[in-house]
Amino acid sequence: MRKKYQKILLSLLIILALIIGGGLAFLKSQAYPANQESLQQITAAKQVQNQDQAFYFPANPDKKRLQTVVFYNGALVDSQAYGQLALQLAQAGFDTYLLKTNLDLPILESQAAIKLIEDKHLSQVILAGHSLGGVMAAQNSLSLKKGTVAGLLLLAAYPSHKTNLAQAQFPVWSLVGDQDLIIKKDAYEDGKHRLPKNTSYIRIKGGNHAGFGNYGPQKGDGQATITPKVQQEQVVKILSQAFD
C-alpha cells in the first residue's frame, strides 16, 4: 500500500513538473528579448553596471542632476530592451536603474523599486515604467516615504483600480504613442480619474506601444512612423525640461 502511494505521489510530482515546465516554456515563447542594437549599445557603454537588482546607468558627470530614474520593464520584455532609453537619460544627467524582474514580469517583483530605493538610500526618485511596469511604478509611489518621489513617468500605462493617486503631490507624466493599439483605451481613460488633475498627458505623434523600448514589433501593435530612438528622445526631453 505504501509503495502504491509513493508511486501516486511521484506521478503527481512529475505531472506538476511538466505543467510548470510547460508554463515556463510558453512564457519564454511569448517574451520579447532586447534587440541586438540595444545590447550592443549597453556593451559599448563601459560605464553601465550589471548589478544584482538592476542595470545601473550612471549620469553624465558634466550634467548630473539630483533626480534618479528607477524603471520597470513592460511585461515579458527584457529589461535590457530599454538600454537605449536609459543611456539617453543618463547622458541627460539622470542616474538610471533598469530593474531586473523575475521572468521579465514586473508583477512578480512588485516591490523591486522600493527595495532598491531603500537599499541604496535614494532620494528624489522618478519612478517610471512601461505598460505593466507603469502599473507597478504607480503602485510603488504610494508606498514610499513622503518626499522620496520626485515624479512618476507612465509610458503607455495607467494606475490600477487599487491605486488612487488623485491627491499625489508629485508631478505625473503620461505618454502614449498615437499609433499604440495595445493599450486599452477605455481603461486608460478611466485611469485618468486616479491621477492628479495636473497630470501632463502627452501623445507622441507617430509613436506606438513598443517604441518606448528596443525589442522589435509587438503583436497587435500599430505601425510606428518614427523610430524608437526618436520616440524615446521625447521622453528624455520632457524629463529634462521638467527638472532644468
Automatic annotation (TrEMBL):
Gene3D superfamilies attached to this UniProt entry: alpha/beta hydrolase
GO molecular function, one term: hydrolase activity
Start and end residues of each Alpha/beta hydrolase fold-5 domain: 69-233
Any Pfam family matching the protein: Abhydrolase_5
Name of this chain's protein: Alpha/beta hydrolase fold-5 domain-containing protein
